[in-house]
Amino acid sequence: MLKTIGTTALMCSTATLAMAQMQCEGLTPEALGLSGVSFTEVAAVPKGDDNPAAQCRIRATTAERKGTDGRDYALRFELALPDVWNGDYVHQFNGGNDGEVKPATGGMGAGTGEATPLARGFAVVSSDAGHDGKAVADAGLAGGARFGFDFEARQMYGYKAVALLDPLARQIVEAYYDNEIGHSYGIGCSNGGRHAMVAASRMPQSFDGLLIGAPGFNLPKAALQHAVDVQALTAVTGDLATAFSPADLQTVADGILQACDTLDGIADGLVMDTAACQASFDSAALQCAEGQNSACLSPEQVTALNTIHAGTPDGGTPFYSDFPWDPGIAGGGWRFWKLESPIPPWGKKPIIAVMGAASLAQIFTTPPTEVAGDPAALEQFLKDFDLTARADEIFATSDAFPESAMEVMTPPGSDNPELAAFRDAGGKMMVFHGVSDPVFSVNDTADWYAKLDANNGGKAAEFARFYPVPGMTHCSGGPAVEGFDMFSDLVAWVENGTAPQAVTATARASNRDLPEAMAGISRPLCPAPQVARYTGGDAGMAESFTCE
């Protein structure tokens, strides 16, 4: 629950904010007591279709320098200061390779509900994490990852940008409103979720609450999975796009549903009991029997699926993690990441074959490997990547790169987490992850949470809760009920002491992966290790399910 303010205090606050708003135009770094910061735009922006709240928007640059690669670097950011401020602050952690200042709203595809934090009155900051993803235009699709040749740019991307920007943004917020920030939050999904987990480890007293979606906290390891995927999938037909048709993936989903749909007490197109499903589903059942040529898979397809779900081609230890079987494999997001995209400049290659390849080559291995920026060359890099010989390059260092990619990117202690400093500072975190996430495995996050719980004597839930989202792919989407507002639950936990329980998720009409039969339904998302089970009543309503 958001803080309430008495009538008199609200009138005074409104008057103060009105004065602050009048000072927006012409605002300078000097007026806010800043040094080493230049404002590139300061504007009073009215509420509109692309702007959820009237605000003073500041776009700025700091930490300008010349990199060891001879290129210019800086940390660019956007700070949204709403006209009606609720007294709180959100640091928006962005995804992918960063390199772009996303609009500072605090909203995510799933997890923050229909109203963004900015629309609710939070001041919000967003940044590019210290590099411009379009600065090396002549490198084609590899340009967004070319910053990996500069060690400090790697560090900024990994952890320094947040540490540098956060106190600066807070200083601006408090100077602008002439008031201290009440509560502070960090929000992000994917690489943004990783940023949030890094903050919990490296800046344990900075955030009262962290909302963490699909955290890629082992990002360099996940990049190795790209090579596992491309090599396994290409072996099916020689071409990623034709390895599995959409109908083939629906066959997989149907097979999983046949084995697992009723394990939670009802057949509804959702597998809520993921753990039980792994024991019940046998991928061999998907293979065509003699004389069968439809609604089944070839032996090569079954082998490829087994390899990418195991995370290793030979049955050994995964290079990254294993992945669970889940019917969300039929979702468009799964195909977009692993098989093909609709993007002509990418040669219709999937994300892993273009953006993922460039990142593995130039950011997540040491020394970095310069790759050509055309789709075919990037895909070929993953086809040729010798996992046995080169996987350890994510742990390698050199004189030019004294910290390995794993040291730069992963939260310290994430292999055996306790988060004692964050816990003892009173911090709270809520973590959610799609069970059918094709790029960051929910199993990796589940393993992390199990260790966190064990290292806190079985009481991690007192400050951290983990919510798997069945059917959801990466951050949102998939044949899933993935419309939910976990941010409000986090705020209530931080500011009211109301610990979150089940979070109600609804079927979003905008979700193109949603089967017609799921339209309008709701389900509870249960904190792990609980599972939502049908206990009677209207099968379309969350109230008919119990977390057990």
TrEMBL record:
<keyword id="KW-0719">Serine esterase</keyword>
<keyword id="KW-0732">Signal</keyword>
<dbReference type="Pfam" id="PF07519">
    <property type="entry name" value="Tannase"/>
</dbReference>
<feature type="signal peptide">
    <location>
        <begin position="1"/>
        <end position="20"/>
    </location>
</feature>
<keyword id="KW-0378">Hydrolase</keyword>
<dbReference type="GO" id="GO:0016787">
    <property type="term" value="F:hydrolase activity"/>
</dbReference>
<protein>
    <submittedName>
        <fullName>Tannase/feruloyl esterase family alpha/beta hydrolase</fullName>
    </submittedName>
</protein>
<dbReference type="InterPro" id="IPR029058">
    <property type="entry name" value="AB_hydrolase_fold"/>
</dbReference>
<keyword id="KW-0106">Calcium</keyword>
<keyword id="KW-1015">Disulfide bond</keyword>
<keyword id="KW-0479">Metal-binding</keyword>
<dbReference type="InterPro" id="IPR011118">
    <property type="entry name" value="Tannase/feruloyl_esterase"/>
</dbReference>
<comment type="similarity">
    <text>Belongs to the tannase family.</text>
</comment>
